[in-house]
Amino acid sequence: MNTSRSARLFSEAQQLIPGGVNSPVRAFRSVGGQPRFIARAKGSRLYDVDGNTYVDYVLSWGPMILGHAPAPVISAIRKAAGNGTSYGAPTELEVALARMIREAFPSMEKVRLVSSGTEAVMSAIRVARGFTKRDSILKFEGCYHGHSDYLLAKAGSGLATLGIPDSPGVPADFAKHTLTAPYNDIDAVKQLIAEHHHQLACIILEPIAGNMGVVPPAPDFLSALRRLTAEHDILLIFDEVISGFRVNYGGAQALYGIKPDLTVLGKIIGGGLPVGAYGGRKEIMDLIAPSGPVYQAGTLSGNPLAVTAGIATLKQLSAKGVYKKLEEKSAALAKGIGDAAKKAGIPLTQTRVGSMLTSFFTSGPVRDWNTVRQSDTKRYGQFFHKMLEQGIYLAPSQFEAAFLSTTHTSADIEKTIRAAHAAFKTL
Ligand SMILES: *Cc1c(COP(=O)(O)O)cnc(C)c1O
Fold first, then answer.
1. Which of 51, 76, 226, 254 is surrounded by the fewest CB atoms within 10 Å?
2. Helix count (H) and strand count (E) of the chain?
3. Residues 382 and 424: beta-carbon distance below 8 Å
4. Does 239 qualify as catalytic in the annotation?
5. Which atom of ligand 1 is nearest to the CA of 239?
6. pLDDT tens, 210-227?
7. 139 — phi, psi (to 5°)?
8. Could you report the per-residue pLDDT of 396-417, keeping only the tens digit for each?
9. Closest ligand 1 atom to the C-alpha of 240?
């Protein structure tokens, strides 16, 4: 596979952009090698600048659930562009998207649109603090909630301690309000609540973890969190930036039947353009400016192009049978990869909820950051490159989800499984 043009662009990019990329994981650091520069994409396929073709399981890290460049979305964007790209004044489109979101997520009685998941999470936490008049938050190890200061904190391993910043540039004074617990560990949460409930504004989590690879919630984990938070007037925030409109139309909260106080969305609701959203109980959301004193604003919030892409995407997803087909294809892919690993004698632990899935190179089981990180990341890197050489584009990190789109065909999946057989044999 010739990748010389990608290589040339990458060395040029590194002179101009930190690490050559505008978001770190794109640089392939955790699998080694050089990233491919993408020229265009259509359906399940990516085409790089050297003319190589890949079946894409990254899908822009989740948003492209309809595959790349879906005709109804692209034509809606084209039409919207002709009407101007930003007004700084309200539009009918924003009302339409807010209504679609509320219909899919009844717990989001009111919704505010922003431009990214990071911004949505940051704003949801601000209003949770404003509402409860408390400063501390509790998050889980291995859950990612965007790159805002408070959320780049995790504690050392083991039972949660006070947050220590993960990144230089985050003042320890900020991170100290962030408590962390292992995912799926309700006893750790109970202990933290016992010690800190007077300071705890909210508990935030990915109801299906996707940013340490896919780790589903243990049975009763979410319902126990709901019960404990309600008992202590702590707000429960579901970060459904990945799972929203991914695992089904109503997200993880519909799948598991849990109603959070606040929900954060992103990725799919922008249809590949920048949109985030947060929403929840009316009395909480009414604290946000201009109806209340909690300030949050955005020049490009509710941008007409982005909102148009979101509306067009959700329309396609609301059609009957979409999630059932995604489920069938994803199950077939997971089974095929699992069988291939077994045949090659490679220990693999697979997790999957609908069309988000991970194959961990560990004998498992996985339930939190401490167990997923037992994975053999070196072996994953080798597997990743063997797949890439065969035209299969997986996430360039063990600790990410693979995603399927409605455009992935049975032929794509068979090709992927064949490639996996060949790749496992060489490991
Ligand atoms: C991607 C992601 C975010 C951040 O969204 P951005 O649009 O990248 O800022 C937040 N939470 C979760 C769960 C995510 O997967």
1. 51
2. 14, 16
3. no
4. yes
5. 13
6. 999 999 999 999 999 999
7. -125, 175
8. 999 999 999 999 999 999 999 9
9. 13
